[in-house]
Amino acid sequence: MWVADGWKDYEVIDCSDGEKLERWGEYVLLRPDPQVIWSTPKETPVWGKINARYHRSKSGGGEWEFINLPKQWQIGYKGLRFNLKPFAFKHTGLFPEQAVNWDWFGNIIKRADRTVKILNLFAYTGGATLAAALAGASVTHVDASKGMVSWAKENAISSGLGDAPIRWLVDDCVKFVEREIRRGNKYDGIIMDPPSYGRGPKGEIWKLEERVYPFIELCSELLADEPLFFLVNSYTTGLAPAVLNYMIASTVGKKFGGKTEASEIGLPVTKTGLYLPCGASGRWIDKEL
What we know:
Oligomer: single chain
Low-confidence stretches: none
Distance between the termini: 21 Å
Mean pLDDT: 92
Shape: globular
Number of domains: 2
CATH superfamily of the largest domain: Vaccinia Virus protein VP39
Radius of gyration: 19 Å
CATH architecture of the largest domain: 3-Layer(aba) Sandwich
Number of strands: 17
Largest sheet: 8 strands, mixed
CATH topology of the largest domain: Rossmann fold
Helix content: 25-40%
Number of helices: 7
């Protein structure tokens, strides 16, 4: 497992009975997690001091119970600052486990010793975009949600990257990639975090299992002649690391050689010393790096 263990402003305190207890800066949240199918004693001094809790409904969805939580606050990670706020379906605007990937490609960008162009697709609130920009890359950030792109811009300003070479685009990722291919544009690295299911700005349907492989194949056409890396994240249970590995190896790896690998990503749990699985990532890297 690739573990995001470099956080100071975030931690998974404990997990039990389908829930995880997390510290986001100075605030403690209790949220459901489908991976937590075990049960351990919930010690009152730890579990009894929460600022908000997300209650999942039996009919789907759910709602927040706010005890003592501001509408918005910030946490930091290695020079980056993120604006957090609770919103629909239990999210806060950040996936802390992705920091393990930020560190990985950030080091690649720094070692490249040249101008690096990165494309971030399904880019959400910009964690990967800002990590790449902080490492020195020029980044194209694409997401179908205008609200998420605006949130990402706020994070850039909070991180002191308001003037960084970032191109912010609200667009359907597939259609954008198709246009970029026709334009002849190329990128040294591509990051994608496709949703399990979603819709584009004009109602375009995205179903991961049906569309991710041809999309990876399509994106491989945007890679430069000597690319640095390719990264695919997945939170879809059916896409095991081995599946990600095969899809990337049979497209990007077949075209450029290099090294392909995949693994679960996760977060350390303070109380138990174990690691909480949080999805999977597949990576391709040039063999000479």
